[in-house]
Amino acid sequence: MPKVHVLDVIFQDQEEAIATYLIETLAGPVLIEAGPESTFPALEKAINAKGYQVADIQHVFLTHIHFDHAGAAWKFAEQGAKIYVHPAGLPHLNAPEKLWSSAKQIYGDQMETLWGDMQPIPLEQLVAADDQDVFEIGDLKLKVIYTPGHAVHHNAYKLGDDIFTGDVAGVKIEQGPVVAPCPPPDINIALWKASIAKLRAEQPKGLYLTHFDYHTDPEAHFDALEIVLDEWADFIKPFYDQQTPSEEIVPEFMAYIKEGYEAAGLSEKLQKIYEYANPSWMSVNGLLRYWKLKEQGRI
Known about the structure:
Layout: E1 4-8, E2 19-23, E3 30-32, H1 40-49, E4 59-61, H2 67-70, H3 73-77, E5 82-85, H4 90-94, H5 97-107, H6 111-115, E6 126-128, E7 134-137, E8 140-146, E9 155-159, E10 162-166, H7 189-201, E11 206-209, E12 213-216, H8 218-241, H9 246-263, H10 268-277, H11 280-295
Parallel strand pairs: 3-4, 4-5, 5-6, 10-11
Antiparallel strand pairs: 1-2, 2-3, 7-8, 8-9, 9-10, 11-12
């Protein structure tokens, strides 16, 4: 079985918020996730520490196109790498202007500080990775599992008895709780639970989370994730029903999340890492949109 290394990209100078995974293969190193472009220097340093150069990585598999997962993919493409992504996400990496401008409306002046830059990737270097596809690179065999719910363009990748889950298995840092990243615009709880069922059916022994590291006991992990998905959605529902403005909901939701972290015994430091990995405020608009689409019968 190829060896897997956890590479911490040190997002915003914070450890344990965002991981990429370097897999050693007989055909050279393969990367799962690219992290944001803002952290590329730290990622390059981590790659060098494993005895490789950026140019050695000719295959990068992305779980989805959100900036914390895919923002630096173009830097590897510049070195000739092929970038693997779900077909629905592929056009956005070839022409990222709409993706970038949409995110800029959310992050404003913090856009470059958080995410750096994003440049187009030539179509000939983008590879569509669709459900149940299997990619063989040297002694590596990766199976694609299409897993929408967090994003319509989300894949997980199975290697042996383990799965690289992106965001579909949520966030869990150290021994903290499992939480659910619910940013707009694609949150769909029913689809997300169907994706969890797909992952359960694979009977994995471990999960490689982008946020963060390797975790065993997938069944307990998935149970906890399904509970928190319902709890967070149910917390937002009365605000949606009352048409409360999102800016009024955010402080209440963040207080609710902090209360949960404190009840779980998280230190202030670990709470801070969770917020870097999964900013609570972003889930407010994601879940408001979920309820709106559900009410309209569109999901």
